[in-house]
Amino acid sequence: MNLRYAWVLAVAGACGVVPWAHATEPLRLQEAVSRSLGANPALAAEAAQLDAVRARAEREGLAPQYFVTGEMENVGGTGSLSGVNSAETTLRVGRLIELGGKRAARQALGSAEIEQQRTAADATRIDIASRAATRFIEVAVDQQRLDFANERVRQAERTRREVAGWVSAARNPESDLHAAEIVVANAELDREHAEHELSSARTALAAMWGAVTPDFDTVAAELTDLPQVEPLDTLLARLPNTIDQQAFISEARMAEARRRIAEAARKPDLNFNVGVRRLEGPNDQGLVMSVSVPLGSRTRAGYSIAEADAQLAAIQARAQAEQFERHQLVFEKYQELGHARTEVESLRGRVVPKAEQALAFTRRGFEAGRFSFLSLSQAQTTLFELRSRLVEAYARYHTLLVELDRLTATTQEPLP
Is the pTM for the entire model greater than 0.90? Predict the structure, then answer.
């Protein structure tokens, strides 16, 4: 399984979908990840949210709008002000005149919000790729578990038939036949459980691309192939550029943009309008102008600047804390990965072959009448348990590798 290539599909944005022929062909990891990235609703939600952020940024970056005001005074009063003969009608056109670079500051905030949403979309892609790869591995492992369960049933039935023949020939006690039948029943229960587990794993994987029922039969995965992991120092060197750190950087840019808006607010804006006033009494008209300036802008802006500074300090502290925690997690997963490889190599290189030899030796002795059925059953159980342990070690290695890749994933991954 080429985990690195599957990871590149996520960090590169899944520009294309790996073609997949039909359900009768085994599904491969790259195909599973590509289909997940191409059809998962979470990515559609992130794309829609990006459109919303862009629209908001465009709106907030507009210049202040003009406004029109109409007024009528001295109408419908008493005495000389009755009727409309003494009315004064005013029509004004006004606009807020921003000073201090407020519009540019809002535009900078909009750009920071767009960048933050893009980073969130990248994080979602990486998460989907990670979950798809993990579920793919689980399907592959459950396929192997089912194969072992079927093999165990076959072995148990074969032994039961042999014991039945020897009980009939009065060579073995009848209790051996009962024991062999119990072994068969347990093996069949284990097989049924393995079938259910595989069905659930296949359904979970298909759900990654929105399929209600699995549209594939099997997956093609070489569990025995253990990809080499990069040196620990190389992985740790990526931590400052991971997607999580990029999210903190985007958040810090937003805080800086808000501080810039707060600084611009120190300089008060001018509310200016100009218009025409008509006086019905003398039948005259004239221009009117007004300018208003808010007071106390510097004090209010000072609080906003202090808030932005505190938020920026908090973001930087959280980013540092997250990097320390990520460093510890990468170290921990790296050690577990090394242990999983050691376990795999020990099991498949020495332990499982010895168990296979022991079973072959015990079976020959059982057939020759030198060993009891109990000895044969114990040898079979030991071998199947060790094979299951080996499969678990394979699964742990590949799952840890996916997790390690996720923890160190950046948006600058090179294409293979």
Answer: no
